[in-house]
Design brief:
By secondary structure, this protein is mainly beta. Helix content is about 5%, strand content about 45%. The N and C termini lie far apart (about 100 Å).
Length: about 800
């Protein structure tokens, strides 16, 4: 058995070493001391944690009859009673329940700490101390009665009482100054169950702990255990202590004429006296209140701004007054409003309205605000100055212009004065050349225009609409048998087709007045293209179809494992070369583009690499074209798809539709209301200003600049100048020139970027066009209505070869051209 216990002891100490944490110091026992005798209701005391950030969370105590602390010999253990203090008294009843009569115990005790290190872990702090208990209780323990536990205001000569114990003839009463019973204040043995403490033993306003044990005529063998200890606090029959001042802090500034003075509460104070003076010696009192019952007071009158005040407090009770507290001072200063936080428009943002609402955070103590808007950051060119704004926002009704940058700031004021200016923010106003002209009422998926007046859109909910006045009005046509139409195509003003999700193909021969089901494919149909009145192609789920009889029947010409999203034949006069695209690439759900050179008889997959779904195609001829990708990328080819280069819009917004009016100038519509334009075949794509954030699924632009974009909610955006083409002309300063002029580009020669500056003395419709040496128009830089001013536009010729080029400006009746040289 001894060998077994030694093994257990060794294992436990190994466990302690493994799990003890070096930052969780083992506690050091203070009481009960090693070898202590004759303990009844033991109180154990140890040193607390040395490091509050050690990871230790509480203590547990184990008392065992085995010196190795083996659990099987426990007399008492607190493993399930966590101890947060550094001492504990074991209740008498609980202690004695573990004691067997007629047995002498040699008990040992140890403290260990408990902490959590993920995962939760119990670990011992290696401390072990001993105490000895011997003796046998022949009588029980008494119960204390008066004063009750935690009683207060007990007189200095209290009457103490406890319960009578059968067989006892005497009782020992002990009073201590500490809860660990180390400082004895009173000790006596008495035959009765009560005693009155004589005067002079106890002190005022002190805490005491007391306990009692019984004796029988058997002598030492008849001694009972001590009772559970009680605590009491003696009466406060002395003057109160000196209060400590709390706030306002000494020497501080106060921003109200009715400040609250605060100080620490004194335990035996009944009232407080507060004095305030304008001098530190309190020769002149402006406030003297001796009847304050709380440990604070709020002043209601009598104080002034910019005056230092001194204050002090003393406590009072029936036994007298304390000394005065220390003297503190404060000064009341007028509180000015803080600088407002600007909210909208966001700093450096671009807006497209001439009547913006400027917004800032409200200041609670402000009575009004001053708003300034200027054309420069120094606020020398003032555009708006209003000092009587009572709300935390202001709508500007006039005075601002397109293509300008404006700076603004706000400050608040109240009866005390004016606060500081907010930080300066700026915003630019860009003309929204894509204007929202209404809605057809249903989500538009595709559009087709024969000219700038006549067009159709197909929508959800079986709807097709037609316009004959450039989209200003739309007339609903007969409903078709499909809840979601994906594409519409017209070969002339009378004959057209539509397709959609239900697999039907509809046809009209009277401009859309009537639509009839001409065929059924059995799968969703996504896109249409006709090369003449009889020959057409259709992109569908898992398939592509062809018709040679005006859509009355369709023959499958292509199959795949995904969707064919779009179909495009760039040379309608021959109808031999065409392209399809979708998400049927290798591995499934990958982007792919296929090509035919024999009117759909055979299809070859083009090398586009690993891409996401290809949504849209546009080719200006059989070789040069673009493909819009799900992730915002645009692919470009100049050799019929044998090679592709990647172009970027600067965004990951999905490209839904593409249109080009020549080799260089085109547009892309995307989700989030985005419209992008290029004038150099996609070398650069610039976002234009639209008036929506809704997805745009279809876009159409004519060479004269008339264009439409359609999308979610049936929204219709309209432009007459291609959306401003490249909205990259920068206005320089605020000077209005006296006459039209076109400056020589700089640098010149250049490679490949140059700048062109021009002057407009009045608002004008401006076009700047680039020509090659043969006089062929190759790029439109500006096609926009611009306000009077000085402008500069950049041209990037990275897509062109070295040589001589010309640029021409047309502004009203003013026309001028100049020569420039590109050298690579």
């Amino acid at each position: 058995m001894k060998t077994f216990l030694i093994v257990i002891f060794i294992l436990q100490n190994l466990f302690n070493i493994i799990y003890a944490q070096p930052w969780c110091n083992p506690p050091t026992g203070e009481y009960v001391v090693n070898g202590y005798m004759d303990v009844d209701a033991p109180t154990f005391v140890w040193q607390p944690f040395s490091n509050p950030d050690s990871g230790c969370t509480y203590y547990c105590i184990r008392v065992s009859s085995f010196e190795c602390m083996y659990p099987g010999g426990d007399a008492w253990v607190s493993a399930f009673i966590p101890i947060t203090d550094s001492c504990i008294t074991i209740p008498v009843a609980e202690w004695l329940n573990r004691i067997t009569p007629n047995v002498t115990y040699a008990q040992h005790w140890a403290i260990y700490t408990w902490g959590f290190i993920p995962p939760p872990t119990e670990y011992w702090a290696c401390f072990m101390d001993l105490y000895r208990h011997q003796g046998l209780y022949q009588i029980s323990y008494t119960t204390l009665i008066s004063p009750p536990n935690n009683a207060v205001n007990i007189p200095l000569n209290p009457s103490m009482s406890w319960s009578s114990i059968t067989g006892a003839n005497e009782y020992k009463v002990s009073i201590y100054k500490t809860p660990t019973f180390q400082y004895l204040k009173y000790d006596t043995i008495i035959a009765s169950t009560n005693v009155t403490i004589r005067s002079g033993v106890l002190e005022s306003a002190k805490n005491y702990w007391w306990k009692v044990k019984a004796y029988s005529p058997m002598g030492e063998q008849g001694t009972g255990p001590y009772s559970d200890p009680f605590k009491f606090t003696t009466i406060m029959n002395v003057p109160p202590a000196v209060p400590n001042l709390v706030s306002p802090p000494n020497g501080s500034s106060v921003y109200t004429l009715t400040p609250t003075l605060d100080w620490d509460s004194i335990l035996n104070a009944s009232t407080y006296t507060v004095q305030i003076s304008t001098d530190p010696n309190f020769l002149t009192l402006i406030y003297n209140n001796p009847g304050i019952t709380n440990s604070f007071v709020t002043l209601t009158a009598g104080l002034s701004y910019e005056t230092p005040y001194y204050w002090r407090v003393r406590a009072v009770n029936t036994y007298g007054s304390s000394s005065w507290s220390g003297v503190w001072s404060f000064t009341i200063v007028p509180q000015l409003p803080a600088a407002p936080n600007l909210v909208a428009p966001l700093n450096n943002s671009e807006i497209n309205t001439l009547t913006p609402t400027l917004d800032w955070d409200s200041i609670p103590i402000a009575s009004s605000y001053r708003l300034q808007i200027a054309g420069d950051s120094a606020f020398t060119v003032m555009m708006y100055n209003d000092s009587n704004i009572t709300n935390s926002f202001k709508s500007i009704s006039s005075g601002l212009n397109y293509n300008y940058t404006y700076y603004w700031k706000v400050r608040a004021k109240n009866s005390n004065g004016t606060g500081p200016w907010s930080p300066v923010w700026k915003f630019s106003i860009a003309q929204a050349n894509w204007v929202n002209i209404g809605s057809v009422g249903y989500e538009v998926r595709s559009s087709y225009f024969l000219d700038i007046n006549t067009g159709w859109v197909c929508c959800e909910q079986y709807k097709i609409f037609k316009t004959t006045n450039g989209g200003q009005n739309w007339a609903g046509q007969s409903d078709v048998n499909d809840p979601m139409l994906f594409d519409i195509f017209f070969i002339n003003q009378n004959t057209g087709w539509s397709c959609g999700n239900y697999g039907f193909v509809r046809k009209t021969t009277n401009g859309g007045t009537n639509w009839v089901d001409s065929a059924y494919t059995g799968v969703p149909n996504m896109g249409l293209w006709f090369t003449d009145v009889n020959t057409g192609y259709m992109a569908s789920m898992n398939k592509a179809f062809k018709t040679t009889n005006a859509g009355n029947s369709w023959t499958q010409i292509f199959s795949c494992s995904g969707y064919v999203q779009d179909v495009f034949f760039p040379v309608s006069s021959t109808g031999m070369t065409g392209y399809i695209c979708g998400n049927y690439g290798p591995g499934g759900n990958a982007g792919a583009i296929n090509k035919t050179t024999n009117a759909g008889l055979n299809w070859s997959q083009l090398p586009v690499g690993t891409i996401t779904t290809v949504n849209a195609l546009y080719f200006v001829n059989a070789l040069k074209g673009w493909a819009g990708i799900w992730n915002g990328t645009i692919l470009f080819t100049t050799n019929g798809g044998s090679n592709w280069t990647s172009q970027t819009t600067g965004s990951s917004d999905c490209i839904n539709s593409l249109v080009f009016i020549n080799d260089n100038t085109g547009w892309a519509s995307a989700v989030n209301g985005k419209i992008y334009v290029t004038t150099n075949s996609g070398v650069n794509w610039t976002q234009q200003v639209s008036t929506t954030s809704l997805p745009l699924y279809s876009i159409k632009v004519f060479p004269d600049g008339h264009g439409w974009a359609f999308g979610q909610g049936g929204i219709v955006l309209y432009t007459t100048n291609g959306g401003g083409i490249m909205v990259n002309a920068k206005k320089i300063g605020h000077e209005i020139p006296k006459e039209f002029s076109l400056m020589q580009n700089y640098p010149n020669p250049f490679n490949p970027v140059t700048n062109i500056k021009y002057h407009l003395p009045n608002n004008s419709d401006v076009k700047i066009i680039i020509y090659d040496i043969s006089g062929k128009e190759i790029e439109v830089l500006i096609n926009d209505k611009q306000n009077a001013g000085i402008y500069e536009v950049e041209w990037n010729a990275g897509n062109y070869s070295s040589g001589v080029y010309f640029y021409k400006i047309s502004a009203g009746n003013y026309v001028e051209s100049k020569k420039m040289v590109l050298i690579k």
